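Lecture notes, unit on protein representations.

Consider one protein chain, 350 amino acids long.
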Amino acid sequence: MAQSSTTSLFYYSCRNGKLDEVSEQLPKMTLEEIDQVQANGSTALHAACYYNHVEIVKLLLKRGASRSIQNVHKCLPYDEAEKEEIKKLFVRETSNRFNDDGTGHIDWMKCDQAAEELAHEYRFRHAGFGWKKKDIDRRMKCIKEEMSHTDDEKVGRFLTRAELDQNPLYLLKAYTVESNFYKKLNKDLATKHFDQGTNSGIVYFIDFFFNCPDLAKLSFKGKVYRGMLITQDDLKQYGIGGKVMNKAFMSTTRDRNIAEGFARNELIHRATAHGQQVKMAALCAYEIINDRTGLDIEQVSEYVIEREVLVGPYTAFVISNIRKVRSDYVEIDLRECEKVNEEEEFDDED
């Protein structure tokens, strides 16, 4: 975002703790105006955090002020906060970003021959089209038209920037916003009726994720974590050596403690009539070994402190170990399967 040559009255209101003035001005302002980098190199959110104005920070975050803008000192608003009370405001409110969705369905599906073929179709359908000739603008516009209605301007502004600047990093930033955007995308992906031929906006989003050269620098290999609630029956169905696949995008974190916390927070201590725990908290450790399976979006995210690595849909893993630590807690190790060999030759045409 371009830096202003002046400093606004709104910035001074946030800096000086003028809560009434901020409350009055906020509803009349666009997010671009709220996030404007001032002449001194900081945003209003930076100022409110630095000067410990808790209630103003709450208002700015609720309105949708960007959490990911660095100031002239290369600091995020979170970095500038001295009070722990303010730092806690930057933690995502929803509890299932790095946990299953609470519907009772776990993240995985069994990975058989048909599932592997479908995964190959998803991942390599557009791999050979070539990005120089590809109509990126049309694809960006299609994603925006199909997905922007899922939330207000908080998501729309990033989709607009992605389209105008032809910059796919803004697509990932939109995904990290706490909104219905990522929820709808994954819900549509997970449904049995998802069709690559009709859900073109989602298909193009997947296309950018796996194949766009501009995102190659984010490719991540290594260990990541995600929490999950799991039943005894699930454990019997998915044993050591079993192959599983995620059908939707999967948010993971490089910070084990974050994933563990998400899992424990969702745990309901309910036992059967015979005293057996109905559901257990599971900490899943995924080892990613292939290029472009996971993208490290920490520096792109609106929630930098989550250290998120986003794993693409239809990624196959094999369960290498299961450790039942307690009656209500289990740890599961998974390693990504070797990348499917791409034997097909693609034409460089769209």
